[in-house]
Design brief:
The protein has 6 helices and 4 strands, in the order ααβαβαβαβα. By secondary structure, it is α+β, with helices and mostly antiparallel strands. 36% of the residues are buried.
Length: 171
């Protein structure tokens, strides 16, 4: 697939086959996330790979009971690491750039998964403290997004998007 086909094929999938992800595909997804641009190339984020069912269940519980998440064979948790950005960018780096870095890395991972024939859904609704405990994150790693990854067991319809004339503003 070319890039535009990948973007067009991406859907929010909430049901996964009981099929493991090949390790080389998972590593390719993580390597692609590592290529994402970041403020000052500081890569002020961390990626937690969650393979164990008990931890995926804990993540689902911490995510407002989005229980489907536990059905994916793996979940990636993207955390901002504000201290990495604060040294160069001060408070703006701590408050914003680290979150942006984690966000764009997650977006790259999501598109890489689609390119490899896998499916994902972006999870942003969760209790930070409970997610941190589930992944055993040290203080200072702030959860930003959870990305369950697996082979789709459903084919969701395309969702309605806002009209470009509604979101684009010429200045």
């Amino acid at each position: 697939m070319d890039f535009f086909e990948i973007v067009d094929a991406r859907r929010s999938v909430r049901s996964y086959q009981d099929r493991p992800i090949e390790e080389e595909k998972l590593q390719a997804i993580i390597a692609t996330a590592n290529q994402a641009p970041s403020a000052g190339n500081l890569q002020a984020y961390e990626i937690y790979v969650v393979r164990q069912k008990a931890e995926r269940v804990a993540l689902a519980s911490a995510s407002l009971s989005q229980d489907f998440m536990a059905g994916a064979p793996v979940a990636l948790v993207f955390c901002a690491h504000p201290a990495r950005a604060a040294g160069r960018y001060g408070e703006r780096g701590r408050r914003l750039y680290a979150v942006q870095d984690a966000t764009i890395a997650c977006a790259y991972a999501m598109l890489a998964a689609v390119a490899l024939g896998l499916s994902t859904v972006w999870i942003g609704a969760f209790e930070d403290d409970r997610v941190s405990r589930a992944i055993h994150a040290p203080a200072g790693h702030i959860p930003v997004a959870i990305l369950p990854i697996g082979y789709a067991a459903e084919t969701p319809a395309r969702t309605q998007r806002r009209d470009l004339s509604d979101i684009v503003h010429e200045v």
